[in-house]
Amino acid sequence: MAILTWTPSPTAVPVAVSASWDTQQRPSYNPNAPRKLKPIPNLEVKPSPAITLPTRTDPSVFDILKQRPTREVTPVKVDSDETYLGYERWLPAAPKVEKPRSVFNAATLAYIGDCIYELYARRHFLYPPLSIEDYNDRVTSVVRCEAQDALLLDLLNDSFLSNTERDVLRWGKNINSAKTKTKKRAGAAVYNRASSLETLIGYLYLTNVNRLEKLMQRLGFSTGASAEMMLKEMNGAKPVQ
Prior knowledge:
Layout: H1 61-65, E1 83-84, E2 87-88, H2 100-103, H3 106-124, H4 132-143, H5 145-155, H6 163-173, H7 181-186, H8 188-207, H9 209-219, H10 227-234
Helix pairs in contact: 3-4, 3-8, 5-8, 6-8, 8-9
């Protein structure tokens, strides 16, 4: 067996080697290991007492329309050619269209019918004088689609409407409208029936204002009230603050 020997070179340069000691105390466990959680004692959760909310009962549209004085205001007749049913004309003149269904679609008639319907509602509650808040509350209660649907269903129970008017209702019921908050709240069926009533009102506004007046009177709105007579009835009354 050969024996190897190593002799340092006389020209070799000594190298200093530094070393360090780890003086930090290390934990005796692995901090990354999953911990064993202590079991949570079973706590008896007592159910909270049931809270009974008061049920809101809104008055029906028929009751709201009756919130007027028992004595109706007598309209004043005027000598003018611009009259119908013996009363002064108050609606703006409609454009002369012989066949509205051939010119306008159902959505257009419902658009103008919605305006006419609200105008009747505002005039209905004009007397006696109320605060603006009361005006808005009453008008809003009868112009919403749920109220219009209730009035239409009551109207369909008798033979007041002609075949042509019922056909207009069916035409207006098929209006394709976007999904709105009102339609989502009331439902598509109620919303479509309300739109059909507005379509009929818009149709009669363009074709037969006299028939429109009778229709609105049948729905429960006051008609033919003259501003002149209303001022006489209100003479001496204190204004609402």
